[in-house]
């Protein structure tokens, strides 16, 4: 059940990133029914990797680096499987910098959510 929740959250984050990128006049690709399904599938797979952020077996830094690398590999794989052409010729610069910026923003949101959760748990523990 947690895996499905992670995948759905991944889809929400992926779709939100696409909409925000459009609002910033940075079109990742022309949207079509096929591209929308590819975006949803890729986002769900990235969301499935969220278990890396939830495990106690890795340190915080190990979790973040592992998730970032898994996300990068997923996007590179999707680029080739779906023919997105993000990584052709000099497109690495057009892909790399936005990837890092977007990943840092998503990480910041995840970190803030974790901080809020920790504070809520600590408040409940203090009550008992």
Automatic annotation (TrEMBL):
It comes from the Bacteria. Keywords: Membrane, Transmembrane, Transmembrane helix. The chain crosses the membrane at residues 7-29, 35-53, 65-84, 90-112. The keyword Transmembrane helix applies. Pfam families: DUF3021 (PF11457). The keyword Cell division does not apply. This is DUF3021 domain-containing protein. It comes from Lacticaseibacillus sharpeae JCM 1186 = DSM 20505.
């Amino acid at each position: 059940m947690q895996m499905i929740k992670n995948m759905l959250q991944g889809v929400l984050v992926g779709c939100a990133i696409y909409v925000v990128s459009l609002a910033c006049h940075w079109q990742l690709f022309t949207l079509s029914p096929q591209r929308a399904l590819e975006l949803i599938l890729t986002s769900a797979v990235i969301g499935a990797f969220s278990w890396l952020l939830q495990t106690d077996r890795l340190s915080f830094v190990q979790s973040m680096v592992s998730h970032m690398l898994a996300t990068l590999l997923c996007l590179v794989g999707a680029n080739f499987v779906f023919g997105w052409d993000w990584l052709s010729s000099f497109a690495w610069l057009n892909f790399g910098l936005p990837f890092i910026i977007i990943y840092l923003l998503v990480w910041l949101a995840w970190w803030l959510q974790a901080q809020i959760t920790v504070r809520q748990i600590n408040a409940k523990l203090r009550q008992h």
